[in-house]
Amino acid sequence: MLREILKEKERIVIKIGSSSLTHKETGDINYQKLEQLVRVLSDLKSRGKEIVLVSSGAQAVGRQELRMKAMPNEMPKKQALAAIGQAKLMMAYQKLFSEYGQVCAQVLLTKHTMVKEESRVNAMNTFHELLNMGVIPIVNENDTVATHEIEFGDNDHLSAFVLAMIDAELLIILSDIDGFYTDDPSSNPDAELIEYVEEINDEHFIMGKDTSSSSVGTGGMNAKIDAGRIATQYGAEMVLVNGRDVNVLYDVVDGKNVGTYFKANKRENFSLAEYL
Ligand code: ADP
């Protein structure tokens, strides 16, 4: 069994995309979903796993707070919505996690944090301390200060960088699709699900389009494959699954055959700086 190894993984980064956290019809945040996610994560934590959550959804919550119908295109407006929504989203997470006896913490990062060694080490120390304290860090890009030049741009890349920074063993990406296909299933009905990727290569980048089928997704599949390249070359395993039902997280850590499993391919002399 290829996936037996996943059972042993203890330090796990879980990334959830906006499309898995919002209602398709309105783009508003799906609080039932949020609650289910928190319940499963608390449970995994109780099983002895160390969990770091990378969560999108701040802009969606901000837009909902202001009762704006559509997402604005202007960057400052989006950043303002993220500022409103991030605080509100964390309030929801803290309330829900405390119901399950867990403490969570907010960590906002920019690409600068990673590029500059001093701040990268500081952030790393904070993560280690939080995990030692038994806290669940909830990470997002610091949208209010990130300009185009210094942004990760999508939380897929951010989650892979976080994984390498904290020496995690497994990256789980929850998306709005069952896994990685031979082509984008939204435009190619003949696309087939790939259950196992031994090593990410150029062909996978051609299969994974950068289009996003939802209005709220940012990275598209290409960003996920690139995040997978970073995570697997760092030496971690990655599983891409559908976040429609967050109970799928149990299946992933139990080594069951769900979504697409990207095998770790540790690169000697891995240096995070090369991927920034
Ligand atoms: P999320 O919001 O979960 O991060 P995205 O919308 O960014 O999700 O990316 C997922 C989407 O990527 C899918 O819904 C699908 O339409 C698209 N996609 C492009 N190429 C592929 C592929 N090869 N396999 C699966 N999905 C693909």
From TrEMBL:
One Pfam family matching this protein: AA_kinase
Residues reported to bind ATP: K15, S175, D176
Keyword Nucleotide-binding: yes
GO molecular function, one term: glutamate 5-kinase activity
Entry-linked CDD domains: AAK_G5K_ProB
Residue intervals passing through the bilayer: none
PROSITE patterns found in the cross-reference section: GLUTAMATE_5_KINASE
One GO CC term, this protein: cytosol
Role of this protein: Catalyzes the transfer of a phosphate group to glutamate to form L-glutamate 5-phosphate.
Family classification: Belongs to the glutamate 5-kinase family.
Protein name (database record): Glutamate 5-kinase
Lineage of source species: Bacteria, Bacillati, Bacillota, Erysipelotrichia, Erysipelotrichales
